[in-house]
Amino acid sequence: MFSGGVTKYAGTSFISTSPCTPKEEETTFWKSMKASREGSLPSGVVLLQVQAGTADNLERQYSSSFAPRLACATSSTASAHCCLGVPSFPPLTARCCLVTRRSVRELDACFREVDKERSVHCVVLSSSGPVFSSGHDLKELKIESGDSAKIQEIFSLCTSVMMAIRRLSVPVIAQVNGLAAAAGCQLVATCDIVLASDKATFSLPGAAFGLFCSTPGIAVARCVPQKMSAYMLFTGNAISAQEALRNGLVSKVVPEDKLQEETDQVVSAIKAKSKSVLCLGKKFYYRQIQMGIEDAYTEGERVMLHNLEYCDSQEGINAFAEKRKPCWEHTDRKI
């Protein structure tokens, strides 16, 4: 499920898709705010939390336009939170109905806004319910007279979100503790790092409903071997977290009760690096995959020389020689 509201805290982004009432949202929000202030959230990590609500909740609490709510209130300290939206309000809510025009449009806007934040080192996508994401809302895909343009918009927006993840300058982590199906599996396959609990499952079941998972298959086929992606697409059968790990769809599988701990460790490892260096690295990593090996090496040499011009690069080398922790600027300022 994708849903639309956002709360952001200093350093990592976290997207949750659990249905809740406005009162429950407020409680969740302030618990998260309190955790950030007390330091239980890693410093330098921006938390972006999306809670699922209803259209009625949204209309009662907020205007229908999402863009004005994306103004950032950024803290001056790395350990403090920053919010997308009005900090004194509970998390923004939106109708949570699988992958819809509205939810995907708002998620795309979230990614674009997050990419502008210098304090964001990575993004974590998660769900607190038994389903990570179950894909498109099939009710929106019924073709009636004059509706084809609207359906095309849904697919185009979904593609836009996937490309936004790939183009996002910082790493995107999927934290999966349930079913990821169809476009939800596509979302997982698009993320840079996937951490799954042993309860997670993954499927491309579209053919069972008469709609082959053509676009989800694009992302999945680029992660797993051809025979496995064909198996998932043609049978619709779900695979376990361990099968997904063996076939390259996920990065690591841990027991359900260790998933958050593992996520925290991965986030901390990312935060310990220079953001500017990781941004450069992510951009080249995906670009070189599309190249021939000789061109990739030629371009890689150029990128490494460019990387060495960063002040953060020289700081890292000096810190290693002096046996101390580096003090990163997290900028691409050159020597």
From TrEMBL:
It comes from the Eukaryota. Keywords: Fatty acid metabolism, Lipid metabolism, Mitochondrion, Transit peptide. GO terms for cellular component: mitochondrion. It is found in: Mitochondrion. GO terms for biological process: fatty acid metabolic process. Its main location: mitochondrion. One of its GO terms (molecular function) is hydro-lyase activity. May play a role in fatty acid biosynthesis and insulin sensitivity. This is Enoyl-CoA hydratase domain-containing protein 3, mitochondrial. The lineage of its organism: Eukaryota, Metazoa, Ecdysozoa, Arthropoda, Chelicerata.
